[in-house]
Amino acid sequence: MKLRALVLAAALVGVPARASADGTIFLGTNTSPDARLVRGASVGFGLLLIGFEFEYANTSDDEETLAPALKTGMGNILLQTPFEIFRMQPYFTTGGGFYRERLDPIDHQETNLGLNTGGGVKITLAGPLRLRLDYRVFKLLGDPLYSTPRRLYAGLNLKF
What we know:
Mean pLDDT: 92
Structural class: mainly beta
CATH architecture: Beta Barrel
């Protein structure tokens, strides 16, 4: 009985998981303190339920409302469904990395560590092309003007 259980466990562990990778280019809005354009890109790979990605995003400033520019470079872990549900693959993500917040009119610049948490969905359009919708909340450490910016974006995602 123990041998049978050991053989079954070895067979389950020994079966390689299907790996996938993807890349996304996106446009969206950073809503803190005012809505401003954000654009960026990410690359990632996943094994069944767990994925990893690196993303870079650049938010423009608005000198009129004193809303700073924000650049982020984050490494994230994704928990995702291992299959699509009605052509959609939902995910939850969290991670950390670096940011730079800058606002020239008041001579402000802060570079430090940041964290992010969020989620979204990848929707299959045709073949490997997907629409990605994503919402993130950031926690910027140090002394930023706005320590919890929020970002919403839509992007084209290519699965390979």
